[in-house]
Amino acid sequence: MKPIQMVDTKNQYLKIKDAIQQGIQEVLESAAYINGPAVQRFTQSLNAYMGCKHTIPCANGTDALQIALMALGLQPGDEVITPSFTYIATTEVVALLRLKPVFVDVDPVTFCIDPSAIEKAITPKTKAIVPVHLYGQAANMEAIMAIANKHGVFVVEDNAQAIGCNYTFSNGTTVKTGTIGHIGCTSFYPSKNLGAYGDGGAIFTNDDALAEQLKMIANHGQKVRYYHDVVGCNSRLDAIQAAILDVKLKHLDAYISARNSAASFYHQAFANHPNITVPAVADYTNHVYHQYTLVLKNADRDALNTYLAEQKIPSMIYYPVPGHKQKMFSTFGLPEVNLPVTDWLTERVISLPMHTELDTEQLTYITSHVLNFLNK
Q: How many CA atoms lie less than 13 Å away from 367 in the CB half-sphere?
């Protein structure tokens, strides 16, 4: 049996090696390393895949979130509602811009932000909502957009874990996550479903004025070289990474299908086990399985994590400390919040290996050891 990886980027690369090397070679021969043809080509390809009006590439997913919030013209002290149960980048940028993070709870079934919790957290100072499409499925965007429109606030989608995910509205219309809110953001970190071989990110919008602002901010606040209209930053997608991503984008739907096949194997192996809750999928979304995350009941999650490591099976706990309990926010004077679902999940979730290269032998080995531990 091949060694089991949490994410196997090497064997995925070997299957597309020739195309990847050709793309890199074209960049090297063109010597157009910054905003060259490779970046433009990938931007157009991604824009078409996402079905949105504007795609702005940038250096990484955290930059994408920061640039998005900067483009909205928010002021220090403005409140931004966000889930606490997410990677720190989502709320780190809120703090960096001296905005006020307002942590709310998540849905216990999907693990995504709870619209009813958003509604309760709205105040006159609320200026934006940042839903996270966690682990690979969508938050309830129809409900979230209704709340945002009712109160006149912006929505910035954190789509770093769910690129390629489809959202279906109650009228039957289906769109890609990341294109529903005023702005969408994603990451091309190597472990993502569409991962570069280094850092990268992108921002999406259907709003022409916001697109112009986003482009300026990502490019030192300039539309015309040396004429800086707003305070910006320097955030570019490297041309070599763009060439790699353009190749991999052609395979993204196949990658999602492979992840769903692995998830189906896990589902069947763990079906009806009294100590395991497998990921549930809401009826308005599909799941692209960036992570395959179990919730354990009446079982020692940390002991299972240790046991799997002893069997050379990697596993991860996403996330052991939620945002509202992170020390970095202690100077913000935030009120104490009671987020029972978030706290419950942080003590019980564990993610198993999930990637495109998992085979039946590996999946059998993983599931048999999980069941062996729980059935002791």
A: 22
